[in-house]
Amino acid sequence: MSLRGKIVATLIRPNKLLYRLIKPSAKSIRRYVHPQSWLGGKLCSPFGVKIEKTAYSEVPCVTFTPKVKSDNKAVIVYLHGGGYCFGSSLTTHRLGVALLAKHTGITCHSIDYRLAPEHPYPAALNDALTAWQGIVDSYPGHMIILGGDSAGGGLSLAMMMRLRADGGRLPDAAILFSPWIDLTCQGESYDTKARADPMFTPSMLRDRSEDYAPGNVDRTNPYISPAFGDFANLPRMLILCGGNEILLSDSEGLAKKAKSVGVDVELALWENMFHDWWLFGMFIPETKQCLGRISEWLNRA
Fold first, then answer.
1. Looking at 93, 156, 275, 286, which residue is catalytic?
2. 245 among known catalytic residues
């Protein structure tokens, strides 16, 4: 990890203690995180990317259009993370998705699905599917790449399995950043990486799992926890994950299971990095390395 990466990790680590002391609700987390990230994204968004509010099939989205395009016949559809309970295209993910659009040279449509606990499962999945179809209808003949981080990565997998089951248009490729695919939260790294992870405690994810799939909802349902699903015949995937995060087991398990059924999958691990490090933009050099890896992978298609 770079020096700047270590500084960022040190700065975010106190949030774990704060969470243990306060146990904030999802709404409280939004009130704390969204204004700060909106301001940071507004001030630090890269030049050369047009950002505008859009909608597909009446689902709100934000479109990030790079001034310099590498491929006019490709688009990225993005599903943001945030434990299904917070995060949005113009707050937590504005900087990251803008940089993704700029570095790949591909227009990104980021979907703002409804959030739990106000809108538990299957609201996010239904919104993602509805917006996906609107985007597919708007871009005939295009290569469509699906991307998502954390909960958005898990939602991406759930959506692909649902599209496959319904005979829908699957993406041509998928880019998943530290996908959260097991909402039973039983991965080995929940124990082995609990101290090393500067961002999350296991209880944080378990609380958000309860918000998204409350009560007696079966969290082994593959559309909630894709780890329990079948990955056969899904498109090629690039999985990117930090070595010091409690979701490491989810990424490793996904790569292993997908490979076993013939999916073209590549797992890229950043040793010692924390969850979603690339969302911190050019504050840390690992962001550019990550986005470069994505561009290289896409160019091999």
1. 275
2. yes
The single residue of 80, 209, 245, 249 carrying the catalytic annotation is 245
- Cα–Cα distance measured from residue 205 to residue 21, given in angstroms and rounded to the nearest whole number: 16
150 is catalytic: yes
- CA distances 3 to 10, 248, 284, 285, Å, are 11, 22, 8, 9
pLDDT tens, position by position, 235-273: 999 999 999 999 999 999 999 999 999 999 999 999 999
The residue annotated as part of the active site, out of 37, 150, 156, 178, is 150
151-203: per-residue pLDDT in tens? 999 999 999 999 999 999 999 999 999 999 999 999 999 999 999 999 999 99
| pTM given for the model | 0.97
Active site residue 142: no
